[in-house]
Write a structure and sequence with these properties.
The protein folds into two domains: 2-154, 3-Layer(aba) Sandwich (Rossmann fold), CATH 3.40.50.720; 163-196 and 230-282, no CATH class. It is α/β, with parallel strands linked by helices. Helix 1 (19-27) crosses helix 8 (201-213) and helix 10 (232-243) packs across helix 13 (306-314). The mean pLDDT is 97. The chain has helices at residues 19-27, 43-46, 52-59, 73-80, 98-107, 136-148, 163-166, 201-213, 215-218, 232-243, 254-266, 272-282, 306-314, and strands spanning 8-12, 36-41, 64-67, 85-88, 113-115, 153-154, 156-158, 178-180, 185-189, 196-198, 222-224, 228-230, 248-252. The protein contains 13 helices and 13 strands. The strands form four sheets. A six-stranded parallel sheet has the order 3-2-1-4-5-6, with helices on both faces. It has a three-stranded mixed sheet with strand order 8-9-13. It has a two-stranded parallel sheet with strand order 7-11. Helix 5 links the parallel strand 4 and strand 5 (113-115). It is 37% helix and 15% strand. The structure holds NADP nicotinamide-adenine-dinucleotide phosphate (NAP). NADP nicotinamide-adenine-dinucleotide phosphate binds next to loops.
Length: 319
């Protein structure tokens, strides 16, 4: 039975930052993913002028758009009707609402497979992971699934940091690291030679799609996937090569990063999450002896190369 999944897929949070990439990849997949794809979105998004291009492009490919309120059980039940697979791409602020979504999935007759919104840092990487503040909502969702979800099977796709976002130098958090094409300046955490495993945003879509296309290996699994492993200095070299000039480089020590991280959490500043994640990435929390890419049938050649992502940044293409 389960190997026939997915037949009807519902994506929640489809128009979000990573949801767009995941939905685009699912909708354009070859071989096809399922026979029907729908998205569940808020009325505000469905009528937002900024989202019309995206929604029209999906509708032209046969995607149904269901509008409703994520926090209204009847709306969710209605969206689940006839759906066997749910892919949640909900944002950080809505992660906890997945517990109710999972309860409703478990109660429904139709939903059999659920992808909770993860697509990021490994929240069970080692013994210290359970104490990391940004992981708490995702950990609660996993705990609920372990304890309460018996019928529906879940798959977690753990991608590590998105390289596209890692490249950005956020003005309010420069010391957390990043690359600024305009001023040809980089801020690098640590020596810059420490390895980090990244996934590019288009590859997140490709990897989630591969998981959907291979239920026989992905149902019930925590899949650890990546585009490639590189270092902040190798990224800098690629920027220098593509812009044909040497860049100015500032360094933030790991100790300094930890200090600012603490300050931000003490001040209850939302940017604290970024500092924690950057610290985890800089200290090796994205590295594995082996990833699950191969299990999903993806080779290194199927993944985007570093140069492609740096090129998008140099050209000022957003994400
Ligand atoms: N690895 C990384 O570097 C990285 C970076 C960013 C995010 N992530 C992960 O990717 C997942 C998705 O994050 P995202 O940044 O793509 O999400 P996002 O853009 O903030 O939100 C995605 C969608 O969630 C829906 N939503 C409904 N209620 C919401 C609420 N109260 N707050 C936020 N969103 C709400 C919205 O969909 P509708 O408008 O359609 O209703 C929204 O478009 C998360 O698990 C996050 O941790 C990882």
């Amino acid at each position: 039975m389960t190997t026939q999944l997915p037949s009807t897929v519902l994506i929640i949070g489809a128009t979000g930052t990573i949801g767009k990439y995941i939905t685009n990849a699912i909708v354009s997949a070859e071989p096809r993913v399922g026979r029907q794809i729908s998205i569940f979105t808020s009325q505000a998004t469905a009528t937002s002028p900024a989202k019309q291009g995206l929604l029209s492009s999906w509708k032209s490919k046969g995607v149904s758009v269901i509008t409703g309120d994520l926090n209204n059980s009847d709306d969710v039940r209605n969206a689940y009707s006839g759906v066997d697979t749910v892919v949640s791409c909900l944002g950080r602020n809505a992660l906890a609402s997945q517990i109710e979504l999972l309860k409703l999935a478990e109660e429904s007759k139709d939903v059999q497979w659920f992808f909770p919104s993860e697509y990021g840092t490994d929240i069970e990487y080692d013994a210290s992971s359970k104490d990391e503040k940004p992981h708490q909502n995702k950990l609660r969702v996993r705990e609920f699934i372990r304890d309460q979800v018996k019928r529906v099977k879940c798959t977690y796709v753990v991608t590590g940091p998105y390289l596209d976002m890692f490249l950005a130098l956020a003005p309010i958090a420069e010391d957390a690291g990043g690359y600024d094409v305009k001023s040809k300046r980089a801020v690098i955490v640590g020596s810059g030679d420490e390895k980090v495993g990244f996934t590019t945003m288009p590859d997140v879509g490709k990897l989630v799609t591969a998981a959907l296309q291979h239920p026989e290996v992905s149902i019930g699994k925590v899949l650890k996937v990546q585009s490639f492993v590189t270092t902040p200095n190798a990224i800098l070299e690629e920027f220098e090569k593509q812009t044909g000039t040497k860049w100015t480089v500032d360094h933030t020590t790991n100790e300094k990063l930890r200090e600012v991280e603490k300050e931000k959490w003490d001040a209850n500043h939302p940017i604290a999450t970024l500092y924690t994640l950057r610290r985890i990435w800089a200290e090796g929390g994205t590295l594995y002896d082996k990833t699950d890419n191969e299990v999903l049938g993806l080779t290194p050649g199927d993944m985007e190369p570093l140069g492609a992502v740096v090129k998008r940044a140099v050209n000022g293409e957003g994400y």
